[in-house]
Amino acid sequence: MKFLFSLLLFTAVLNLKAQKDKEELACLGYDTIQYNYVVLGDTVEAVFYIVNTSAHTIPIWQVHPGCQCTVPVYPDSLSPFRTDSVVLAFYSAHTPPGYFEKGAIVLNPLGERNLLLTGTITKPQPKGRKPRKYRIYNTRLYKEDVALLLQK
Question: Is it the case that residue 29 has pLDDT exceeding 80?
């Protein structure tokens, strides 16, 4: 009888631990968006979709970008099993031409989530070309992400 009780208790503890491990601020698709070429002076907005996999509302304390040329736009909190987006706006006007990696850290009570935008900045176009604005998404979903969305 004691063995059976101990086994049930052990199983319950493992289930609670497994549920706690599932609670996170998950990123739908990739945590990294790769943009091929950006002309010097253009703006790139990278949209990362995030989902709250816990049963509680998660406040997003801060999205901390790696440099001053990247500006984040993010929600204050995320309701249970809801999807929202974090937008990283990258202004390439004062960045030297060549390869770049611009990232941000999403700070929340369940941990940190790193988001990254990579690409190559080319030399500016001839005079008269106005700076352009591009918006790209991390829309590639994994099978687990699709299953998570279907649970809503």
Answer: no
Contact yes or no for 119/37 (Cβ under 8 A): yes
Asked if the structure places residue 113 within a domain, the reply is yes
Which residues span the domain enclosing 135? 21-150
Model pLDDT for residues 13-22, shown as the tens digit of each residue: 444 444 444 5
Helix (H, G, I), strand (E, B) or coil at 66: coil
Q: What's the CA gap between 102 and 84, in Å, rounded? A: 21
Answer whether residue 114 is part of any domain: yes
Tokens encoding 124: 């500016």
Name the domain count of the chain: 1
CA distances from 10 to 3, 6, 16, 44 (A): 10, 6, 10, 50
Let me know if residue 98 belongs to a domain.
yes
Which residues are CB-neighbours of 68 under 8 A, at least 6 positions away?
A: none
97-126 mean pLDDT: 89
Flag whether 4 is in a domain. no
Structural contact between residues 25 and 77, judged by C-beta atoms closer than 8 angstroms:
no
DSSP character at residue 61: -
CATH for 136: 2.60.40.10
Distance CA 70, CA 67 (A): 6
Phi first, then psi, for residue 116 (nearest 5°) are -140, 135
